[in-house]
Amino acid sequence: MQVTILMSIFSILFLALFAVLLTLVVRALLKYLHSGETRREKAAVKRSLGEALREHRMRCKMTQEFVAEAVGVSRQAVSKWENGDSDPSTSNLCVLAKLYGVPPEELLRAAE
């Protein structure tokens, strides 16, 4: 008799724990789904900074390899900046602005 009572208690506790976990998963999914606009906005900002960097490099008729050597980073780093996969550090952004002959604010303005 006591074994069946204990099994019933464990079953109820298990169901309660499952319900709590399910609720947390559903809330997390809903939060993720509702953050789509924010994620798109963030991607657009990164893309616009990358596009600005690429446009200035092309305007100056420089290769990614040349820019990488001038800044002191790898060519892959320059590619990631231009693709929006990562952002240059503040010091690298200042070096890029100087290399392209534009004020740093102009590069940052593209990221607004």
UniProtKB/TrEMBL annotation:
Residues spanning the membrane: 6-30
Sequence ranges assigned to domain HTH cro/C1-type in this UniProt record: 53-107
Coiled coil: none
The name this protein goes by in its record: Helix-turn-helix transcriptional regulator
Keywords: DNA-binding, Membrane, Transmembrane, Transmembrane helix
GO MF term (any one): DNA binding
Organism: Anaerofilum hominis
